[in-house]
């Protein structure tokens, strides 16, 4: 009996010509993500002086450094929640509109502007001599300008503008993916708008909303340009990315900078795992109500 060829034996184990198409993507992943990640771990464990864990000890014994975790969470979590709270009702409204593409294009426009351009616009609009303060003073609502830039609220506004299109597009894709026949069937059986939302839409949307929250949170947690241009980098908006930058490029301690970047990644991972864990409390099973 002739033995099957090598090609047939590999195909029997799932390795064929189609599988080879994965190789370019796999190489890119290894070069751009896996290698830098492990390089960063090794670099963070080889400090300029002291034991292998001294970078982490220095970070968690210096209040000026470890306070950056709370400062970053204080920005990223509220911004993510507000973006999601705004994106959900707007996505529900947009899915029923005829000119959905036009409105979607307008809503995602800020994502094309870039962080620096948005920061420059906010400095002009919300600054002490900006249009916002001038208008309110002119109509008598304010006696003097309100400080809305170079503090927490300036960074918050920037993250809100640049993060909303991202949250909106993801939420819209999940909302439009739910089969309208399910809602129509529930309405036929007498379910009101609130019941249809809480008992049909929300359980089906929870997995998608959890993923959207995680991605939007990671994006907001990595804030850097906005915190420098619109915040107070030496004060309340000294976020963890600024601490990593200062260690690596101002103090020329790249090992400490890598350690701070690793801590940053661990905090993000903890939040993401917690959110994905909470998701199972609301819904278990596949989202079988989506179209297709």
From TrEMBL:
Subcellular location per UniProt equals:
Cell membrane
Record InterPro entries: MetI-like, MetI-like_sf
- The ABC transmembrane type-1 domain sits at 69-277
Residue ranges spanning the membrane: these are 20-42, 64-90, 102-126, 152-175, 200-224, 259-282
Q: Signal peptide location in the record? A: none
Principal localization?
membrane
Keyword Transport annotated: yes
- Asked if the record carries the keyword Signal, the reply is no
Q: Which Pfam family, an example, fits this chain?
A: BPD_transp_1
Keyword terms of this UniProt record: Cell membrane, Membrane, Transmembrane, Transmembrane helix, Transport
Q: How does it sit in the membrane?
A: Multi-pass membrane protein
Recorded family membership: Belongs to the binding-protein-dependent transport system permease family. CysTW subfamily.
Q: What's the protein here called?
A: Sugar ABC transporter permease
Species this protein is from: Sinorhizobium numidicum
